[in-house]
Amino acid sequence: MAGVSDEELKNMTQEERVTALGMRTDQLTGLAMRIEFDPDEVERFEYPWAPEVDFNKRTELDVDDMTSTEVNQKIRALMQEGYGTIVIKNPRGKHSLGVGILTRLRLIFEGSLGYFGVGLIDGPNVTINGRVGWSCGENMLAGTIVVEKNAGSTFGAAIRGGDLVSRGSVGSRTGIDQKGGTILVGGDTGALTGFMMQRGRMVICGNAGKNLGDSMYDGTIYIGGEIQSLGVDAVPAELTDLDKAWLTRKLTQYGLMPDKGVDHFQKIVAGRQLWNYDNLEPSEKKIIL
Amino acid sequence: MAGTQYRGSELTDVDQFLTDKEGLESEREKEIGQHIGYRYDVNLVPDYDRITPFLKKYMEVMGWDDLNWLEDIHMGYEDGAPAVFDRNNNGWVSIPDTIELPDNQQDRDMIARELLIKFQMSDRHPLVALRKAYMKF
Q1: Where are the domains of chain A?
Q2: What is the pLDDT of residues A75-115, one digit of tens each?
């Protein structure tokens, strides 16, 4: 890798880059897969390739006449110029805005977003002053998204990390396939919330629709209101002091703390009845390996 | 029959998987020869009284009021040794022997978070080379 400069790599096709970096000729035999942390690693808080941005460097962007792709490319270009706070005006419900941002940034949308808004992000703090359509924050890895009004269905689908907040109510299948992170809803949530949830936390201040936590494998759902019905293998659990402290901290942070506190919240977890381990599984693994 | 009851074992001690590498406690685990489920409590929420100065600084740089995605990071145990799962690498990263483990999971989790950040942001992380080769834009 040392023999190829970044400039040379930029002018190559992906195939050429892979070859130039020696990835086709790596000797894999005998190579240990074990990786160990280095306790003396240099302190760094952002990815090595991330553009250096300054939160105090602010700009506004009117996207009325731009396509979603143009908006996303412009956001990247502004980040390369060091802008750390970007205000997007007139988003007008366009789909897939603000996706794939992999470093810190303050991104403010003055208006509503369409489907798949700010998905796949890893770090930015996003505020949306309007509403959002389906799958806002899908596959989010880190950062915060605060939606000031209501959100559509599959809010935070497959989220892996970070905080996703709607101050209003959200549609059905909130946090479907959630694998981490926290989803907070100030109002109500629809049917099948937490469907196939695997990890992470969900806090609903209002009521939940039918089949809450259906087929959840792990994770925790906190509900402040009423539950229409629990799904398969979703069971109540005891709200501990640590849970209460965490809930108080999180809800206060986003200005969602109910007047009556957090003592009334119900905690729902997986009953672990669906954790199936077949006799054949280990032997099948051995055959494959 | 599968799917009618939980047949794994329970987490009882912070050093459980350091002293018992296989972790086969329940009848079912012994029968199938593998541990069922995680080797740490994935649902344990962080105790913010135990946060380290490095993590405080990280939160400040990122503009977050809490640990954010790191709330899901815990110290796990792989092959009888402490390790942390790195989602960017899709694999476990071991804790070196030189690091002394505290006697509780909360403090261990804070160490795991700090080490993971330092590794992910370093030039030796596998994602650096992969990004050079495969990045789209």
Answers
A1: 59-272
A2: 999 999 999 999 999 999 999 999 999 999 999 999 999 99
Cβ–Cβ < 8 Å for A222, A243: yes
Q: Where are the beta strands (DSSP E) in chain A?
A: 35-36, 54-62, 83-89, 106-110, 122-128, 142-147, 163-166, 179-185, 199-204, 220-223, 234-237, 266-270
A160 CB neighbours in chain B (<8 A) are 69, 72, 87
Of residues B2, B4, B132, nearest to A278 (C-beta): B2
Are the beta carbons of A193 and A216 closer than 8 angstroms? no
Percent of chain B at pLDDT > 90 equals: 70
Give the minimum alpha-carbon distance from A244 to chain B in angstroms, rounded to a whole number.
Answer: 10
CA-wise closest residue to A132 among A140, A20, A80: A140
The model's pTM: 0.93
pLDDT in tens, B72-109: 999 999 889 999 999 998 999 999 999 999 999 999 99
B59: left (phi over 0), alpha (psi -120 to 50) or beta: alpha
Q: Are A108 and A89 in contact (CB under 8 A)?
A: no
Do the chains contact at A218 and B63, CB–CB below 8 Å? no
C-alpha distance from B69 to closest chain A C-alpha (Å): 4
The architecture that CATH gives domain A59-272 is 3 Solenoid (2.160)
> Which of B43, B44, B116 lies at the smallest CB-CB distance from A269?
B43
Coil, strand or helix: which one is A6?
Answer: helix
Mean pLDDT over A23-44 rounds to 81
Candidates B4, B49, B62: best to mutate against A (most CBs of A within 10 A) is: B62
For the segment A154-164, the average pLDDT, to the nearest whole number, is 98
Q: What is the pLDDT of residues A207-244, one digit of tens each?
A: 999 999 999 999 999 999 999 999 999 999 999 999 99
Instruction: Choose the mutation target among B6, B57, B68, B134 for the interface with A, i.e. most A CBs under 10 Å.
Output: B68
CB atoms within 10 A of CB A18: 16
**CB–CB of A181 and B72 under 8 A?**
yes
User: B99 Cβ partners below 8 Å, 6+ apart?
Assistant: A37, A39, B111, B115
Strands of the sheet with A35-36, listed across from one edge: A35-36, B91-94, B81-86, B76-78
Closest-CA distance, B15 to chain A, in angstroms, reads 20
User: How far does A106 lie from chain B, in Å, by closest CA?
Assistant: 9
